[in-house]
């Protein structure tokens, strides 16, 4: 067996670094652990945490190619965040100008969830847990 212990982090390349940094830190509330600018790559790397646990790397690169992205596109389907109160989380996103899909109910678990997108249209999910 390979011996995997847990998911270490998710990496996201953004088109507009400052816009995405604001979205992930101010709108979603992730904490900045470290931010570095790599001159040789003309790239920022922002390490973000959720409740103190390192979870996301946000990268910028000059002119990154666009990637088709919807939950049904081939590849990574979406990144989901667990929330205690879905209605409150949706209200917060909407107050920040984020468009949120109607709340659905998982037919297998009975739990409520919804989708929204980051500034690059990457699909994100809130799942009430």
Properties at a glance:
single chain; alpha/beta; 2,3-Dihydroxybiphenyl 1,2-Dioxygenase, domain 1; 2 domains; 2 helices; 8 strands; metal ion binding; YwkD-like_dom
Task: Describe the 3D structure.
- The strands form 2 sheets. The protein has a 4-stranded mixed beta sheet, covered by helices on one side. The protein has a 4-stranded mixed beta sheet with strand order 5-8-7-6, with helices on one face.
- It is globular and about 50 Å long.
- The protein has 2 helices and 8 strands; from the N terminus they run E-H-E-E-E-E-H-E-E-E.
- With 129 residues, the chain is of the alpha/beta class.
- It starts with 9 loop residues before the first strand and ends with a strand.
- The protein folds into 2 domains: 63 residues, 2,3-Dihydroxybiphenyl 1,2-Dioxygenase, domain 1; 53 residues, 2,3-Dihydroxybiphenyl 1,2-Dioxygenase, domain 1.
- Helix content is 16%, strand content 37%.
Question: How are the secondary structure elements laid out?
Answer:
Layout: E1 10-14, H1 17-27, E2 31-38, E3 43-50, E4 53-60, E5 79-83, H2 86-95, E6 104-105, E7 112-117, E8 123-128
Parallel strand pairs: 1-4, 5-8
Antiparallel strand pairs: 2-3, 3-4, 6-7, 7-8
Protein name: Glyoxylase I family protein
Keywords: Metal-binding
Domain VOC: 6-129
